[in-house]
Amino acid sequence: MYKHIFLYSLFIIFLFNCEKDDICLEGTPGTPRLIIRFFDQNEKITPKSLSNVTIKAVSKDEEYIVFSGDSLGIPLKLVSNSTTYTFARLGDSANQKKVDTLKFNYKRDDYYISRACGFSSNLIFSDPAIEILDKESLFLGFKILKDTIRNENQAHLAIYH
Hints:
This protein is mainly beta.
Protein backbone atom coordinates (compact mmCIF):
# COMPACT_ATOMS: atom_id res chain seq x y z
CA MET A 1 0.00 0.00 0.00
CA TYR A 2 2.81 2.42 0.86
CA LYS A 3 4.37 1.56 -2.49
CA HIS A 4 1.27 2.81 -4.34
CA ILE A 5 1.07 5.99 -2.27
CA PHE A 6 4.73 6.66 -3.02
CA LEU A 7 4.22 6.14 -6.79
CA TYR A 8 1.14 8.39 -6.86
CA SER A 9 3.00 11.07 -4.91
CA LEU A 10 5.93 10.85 -7.29
CA PHE A 11 3.58 11.14 -10.29
CA ILE A 12 1.90 14.25 -8.85
CA ILE A 13 5.27 15.88 -8.13
CA PHE A 14 6.40 15.30 -11.75
CA LEU A 15 3.07 16.51 -13.08
CA PHE A 16 3.23 19.85 -11.31
CA ASN A 17 6.97 20.28 -11.78
CA CYS A 18 6.77 20.82 -15.56
CA GLU A 19 7.29 24.35 -16.81
CA LYS A 20 6.52 25.87 -20.19
CA ASP A 21 10.26 25.85 -20.96
CA ASP A 22 10.29 22.04 -20.86
CA ILE A 23 8.65 21.73 -24.30
CA CYS A 24 9.82 23.47 -27.47
CA LEU A 25 6.69 24.50 -29.33
CA GLU A 26 6.33 23.49 -32.97
CA GLY A 27 6.18 27.06 -34.30
CA THR A 28 9.40 28.19 -32.59
CA PRO A 29 11.74 29.50 -35.29
CA GLY A 30 15.11 27.82 -35.64
CA THR A 31 18.18 28.94 -37.52
CA PRO A 32 16.98 30.20 -40.91
CA ARG A 33 18.18 28.87 -44.26
CA LEU A 34 19.88 31.04 -46.89
CA ILE A 35 17.22 32.10 -49.42
CA ILE A 36 18.60 32.57 -52.95
CA ARG A 37 16.66 34.11 -55.85
CA PHE A 38 17.85 33.61 -59.42
CA PHE A 39 17.59 36.49 -61.90
CA ASP A 40 18.24 37.18 -65.57
CA GLN A 41 21.74 38.60 -66.14
CA ASN A 42 20.49 41.14 -68.72
CA GLU A 43 17.38 42.29 -66.84
CA LYS A 44 18.42 42.13 -63.21
CA ILE A 45 14.91 42.61 -61.79
CA THR A 46 13.35 39.74 -63.78
CA PRO A 47 13.40 36.37 -61.98
CA LYS A 48 14.77 33.60 -64.19
CA SER A 49 14.29 29.94 -63.33
CA LEU A 50 17.02 27.36 -63.33
CA SER A 51 16.14 23.85 -64.43
CA ASN A 52 17.64 20.49 -63.54
CA VAL A 53 20.42 21.85 -61.38
CA THR A 54 22.04 19.42 -58.97
CA ILE A 55 23.15 21.03 -55.71
CA LYS A 56 25.46 19.33 -53.24
CA ALA A 57 27.10 20.54 -50.06
CA VAL A 58 30.81 19.79 -50.14
CA SER A 59 30.66 17.37 -47.25
CA LYS A 60 30.51 13.60 -46.92
CA ASP A 61 27.19 13.46 -45.11
CA GLU A 62 25.13 15.83 -47.28
CA GLU A 63 22.72 14.67 -49.95
CA TYR A 64 22.12 15.93 -53.45
CA ILE A 65 19.22 18.29 -54.19
CA VAL A 66 17.80 18.36 -57.71
CA PHE A 67 16.36 21.81 -58.21
CA SER A 68 14.21 23.67 -60.72
CA GLY A 69 12.79 27.14 -60.05
CA ASP A 70 13.73 30.74 -59.30
CA SER A 71 14.00 30.55 -55.50
CA LEU A 72 15.93 28.18 -53.24
CA GLY A 73 16.51 27.76 -49.51
CA ILE A 74 19.70 26.00 -48.41
CA PRO A 75 20.98 25.40 -44.87
CA LEU A 76 24.35 26.75 -43.78
CA LYS A 77 26.63 24.90 -41.36
CA LEU A 78 26.66 26.15 -37.78
CA VAL A 79 29.88 24.42 -36.76
CA SER A 80 32.01 26.60 -39.03
CA ASN A 81 31.99 30.08 -40.56
CA SER A 82 31.60 28.91 -44.15
CA THR A 83 29.63 26.44 -46.23
CA THR A 84 30.53 25.30 -49.73
CA TYR A 85 28.01 24.09 -52.31
CA THR A 86 28.44 22.87 -55.87
CA PHE A 87 25.80 23.75 -58.46
CA ALA A 88 25.93 21.54 -61.57
CA ARG A 89 23.85 21.63 -64.74
CA LEU A 90 24.16 19.67 -67.93
CA GLY A 91 24.61 21.90 -70.97
CA ASP A 92 23.11 21.54 -74.43
CA SER A 93 25.11 18.43 -75.25
CA ALA A 94 25.46 15.44 -72.92
CA ASN A 95 29.22 16.01 -72.56
CA GLN A 96 28.89 19.65 -71.59
CA LYS A 97 28.49 20.02 -67.83
CA LYS A 98 28.68 23.40 -66.10
CA VAL A 99 29.71 23.39 -62.44
CA ASP A 100 30.09 26.37 -60.13
CA THR A 101 31.35 25.91 -56.60
CA LEU A 102 30.24 28.68 -54.23
CA LYS A 103 31.64 29.23 -50.77
CA PHE A 104 29.40 31.25 -48.44
CA ASN A 105 31.27 33.09 -45.65
CA TYR A 106 29.46 34.31 -42.53
CA LYS A 107 29.66 34.90 -38.80
CA ARG A 108 27.20 33.45 -36.32
CA ASP A 109 25.26 35.51 -33.81
CA ASP A 110 23.87 32.92 -31.39
CA TYR A 111 20.95 33.74 -29.11
CA TYR A 112 19.14 31.79 -26.43
CA ILE A 113 15.52 30.78 -27.08
CA SER A 114 14.61 28.61 -24.06
CA ARG A 115 15.77 25.64 -22.07
CA ALA A 116 13.84 23.20 -24.29
CA CYS A 117 14.66 24.83 -27.64
CA GLY A 118 18.25 25.76 -26.87
CA PHE A 119 20.05 28.27 -29.08
CA SER A 120 19.38 29.62 -32.55
CA SER A 121 21.61 31.70 -34.78
CA ASN A 122 21.44 34.73 -37.00
CA LEU A 123 24.04 34.49 -39.75
CA ILE A 124 25.85 37.64 -40.90
CA PHE A 125 27.72 37.64 -44.21
CA SER A 126 31.43 38.40 -43.79
CA ASP A 127 33.82 39.79 -46.38
CA PRO A 128 33.95 38.28 -48.97
CA ALA A 129 30.39 37.01 -48.62
CA ILE A 130 30.67 34.63 -51.55
CA GLU A 131 33.70 33.12 -53.22
CA ILE A 132 33.32 31.42 -56.60
CA LEU A 133 35.86 28.59 -56.42
CA ASP A 134 35.24 26.63 -59.64
CA LYS A 135 33.49 28.72 -62.26
CA GLU A 136 32.28 27.22 -65.50
CA SER A 137 29.81 29.96 -66.58
CA LEU A 138 26.72 28.76 -64.76
CA PHE A 139 26.47 31.95 -62.70
CA LEU A 140 27.49 35.37 -64.00
CA GLY A 141 27.32 37.41 -60.80
CA PHE A 142 25.57 37.95 -57.49
CA LYS A 143 24.26 40.65 -55.17
CA ILE A 144 23.72 40.54 -51.41
CA LEU A 145 20.11 41.57 -50.75
CA LYS A 146 20.22 41.18 -46.95
CA ASP A 147 23.54 41.02 -45.09
CA THR A 148 21.99 39.27 -42.07
CA ILE A 149 20.04 36.02 -42.29
CA ARG A 150 17.38 36.40 -39.57
CA ASN A 151 14.36 34.70 -41.14
CA GLU A 152 13.16 33.07 -44.34
CA ASN A 153 10.59 35.73 -45.29
CA GLN A 154 12.76 37.47 -47.92
CA ALA A 155 15.60 36.54 -50.23
CA HIS A 156 19.11 37.16 -48.88
CA LEU A 157 21.06 36.69 -52.10
CA ALA A 158 20.45 37.34 -55.80
CA ILE A 159 22.38 35.23 -58.32
CA TYR A 160 22.45 36.23 -61.98
CA HIS A 161 22.66 33.71 -64.82
